[in-house]
Amino acid sequence: MKRVRRTSFQTGAALGIVLSLWITGMAGAAVKSHEYGNVLMSQPQNAKTALPVTFRHWSHRGKYTCRLCHVDLEFSQLANGTGVMEEDNRNGMYCGACHNGKEAFALETCTKCHPKDKQHEAELEQQAKREFQKLKETMPGATYGNKIDWMKAEVDGVITPKDFLQGISLRKNDMMVNSRDEPRSPALPGLPEIIFSHSKHVVWNGCGMCHPDTFALETGKTKMSMREITEGKFCGRCHGTIAFALNDCTRCHSKPVASP
Ligand code: HEC
Ligand code: HEC
Ligand code: HEC
Ligand code: HEC
Ligand code: HEC
Ligand code: HEC
Predict the structure, then answer these.
(1) pLDDT (tens digit, 9 = 90+) per residue, 39-81?
(2) DSSP single-letter state for residue 71
(3) Is the beta carbon of 86 within 6 A of some atom in ligand 6?
(4) Shortest CA distance to 1 belongs to which of 233, 236, 226?
């Protein structure tokens, strides 16, 4: 990437195209829209007792905020980082907080999450794909990722993600708001600036999903580069995995630099 940067330094646009091809190439095993945001939950020690469980973000993220699961229910933001056990679920934690026969289908229907065998796994996948197509038809479109513009869906009221579960969540308080924008000038002259909007992120994400582990609580302090982002760090933790894909350069690099 450094080499590319030096040779076509003058023309931000040309570089943009090169980079976008490079990044697309990297994301190359181009994830299908119905598989974008899927997490295969398979801790090695469970291999003998249960087949891997596929958790699908697309079927949950329109119904609940990221915050509800990743802060209140303490799901890790790393695949297999949570260490879910059957007993935890039965005790009303993790998946069991909702899959209790009231909020969502009950744990007793094991095979909705645990495939019986490889063939059943393929059937569950096929069924999920059909349900995804049905959902997608009702949603505003996008070019990459799930090919759903989740943000527009929320703004237009097509979805209203819940941010509260009785007995689990705390009521939001004044500490949990921040409407500051954090502008960023990328280290490449001519490339549009990035505007990070707290207010738009806080609709979905709790403060704790970003602070203090991923971003400093001080404007301009966190050093980040596009390479690190494409490697899944900083903004790339969510963008490129669950939130809109990194191919959408201009959704982040959105503010044109004033012409001299
Ligand atoms: C809502 C989805 C869901 C349902 C329904 C469900 N499970 Fe699970 N189960 C999981 C997840 C997620 C894991 C963790 C998988 C991993 O990380 O390896 C898990 C793990 C397990 C494990 C391995 C870990 C351990 O504790 O030994 C067993 C065994 C298991 N489940 C059995 C069952 C049985 C039996 C049922 C039906 C009574 C059931 N599960 C219903 C989601 C579910
Ligand atoms: C219904 C609960 C739920 C909701 C809502 C939810 N997540 Fe997740 N998320 C999970 C689970 C479960 C995992 C897998 C954790 C594990 O394997 O231990 C996960 C994993 C992740 C990962 C790691 C993915 C990877 O491949 O390493 C990221 C990043 C993430 N979520 C971000 C988000 C964002 C951003 C949102 C909101 C747009 C969101 N999540 C909404 C439950 C949820
Ligand atoms: C915050 C609540 C909530 C949590 C936590 C949650 N789910 Fe769900 N889940 C739902 C709801 C609501 C539905 C849709 C209604 C239904 O099918 O009962 C659903 C549907 C599903 C489906 C069917 C659609 C699909 O994605 O194929 C599966 C499978 C599933 N959940 C697995 C899981 C697993 C595995 C976990 C834990 C890792 C989990 N869920 C955690 C609320 C939740
Ligand atoms: C999606 C990630 C994300 C979320 C969620 C988030 N922030 Fe931030 N926050 C950032 C980034 C990025 C910066 C800029 C850091 C830098 O420039 O080094 C920042 C900067 C800050 C700063 C320093 C600048 C300022 O505004 O005074 C504070 C304080 C802050 N955030 C508070 C919060 C609070 C409170 C919440 C919850 C309401 C929150 N943040 C939610 C990403 C996030
Ligand atoms: C914790 C997860 C997370 C992190 C980290 C994160 N985002 Fe987001 N971002 C989201 C979600 C969720 C949305 C809602 C849209 C979607 O899911 O596609 C969003 C939306 C956006 C939007 C559209 C909103 C708008 O202002 O028009 C922009 C731009 C954006 N993010 C930029 C960034 C940048 C830049 C960073 C890093 C400084 C970053 N994000 C870090 C989760 C995250
Ligand atoms: C999720 C938001 C986001 C998306 C999408 C995104 N970028 Fe970036 N980009 C950033 C941030 C944040 C920086 C770091 C700004 C700084 O220097 O602090 C950055 C920096 C850069 C830089 C400066 C040099 C460097 O390596 O840091 C280039 C060039 C760049 N991006 C190109 C692209 C291209 C091309 C795309 C589309 C393929 C893209 N970006 C998509 C957020 C994004």
Answers:
(1) 999 998 888 888 899 999 999 999 999 999 999 999 999 999 9
(2) I
(3) no
(4) 226
Q: If you measure from the C-alpha of residue 253 to the centroid of ligand 4, how many angstroms do you get, rounded to a whole number? A: 18
Give, in order, the Cα–Cα distances in Å from 103 to each of 22, 55, 95, 134: 43, 17, 11, 21
Domain count within the chain:
2
The dihedral over CA atoms of 54, 58, 60, 66, expressed in degrees to the nearest 10, equals: 100
Nearest residue to 96 (alpha-carbon basis) of 106, 81, 83, 110:
106
Cα pseudo-dihedral 8, 10, 13, 19, rounded to 10:
30
CATH number at residue 248: 3.90.10.10
Domain that holds residue 259: 172-260
**Model's pTM, two decimal places?**
0.94
199 CB near ligand 4 (under 6 Å)? no
25 lies in some domain: no
Nearest CA to ligand 1 atom 8: 86
Kind of pairing, strands 253-255 and 193-197? antiparallel
Q: Which residue has the tokens 């203090």?
A: 212
Ligand 5, atom 28: closest residue by C-alpha: 252
pLDDT digit string (tens) for 187-198? Answer: 888 899 999 999
Per-residue pLDDT tens digits for 211-241? 999 999 999 999 999 999 999 999 999 999 9
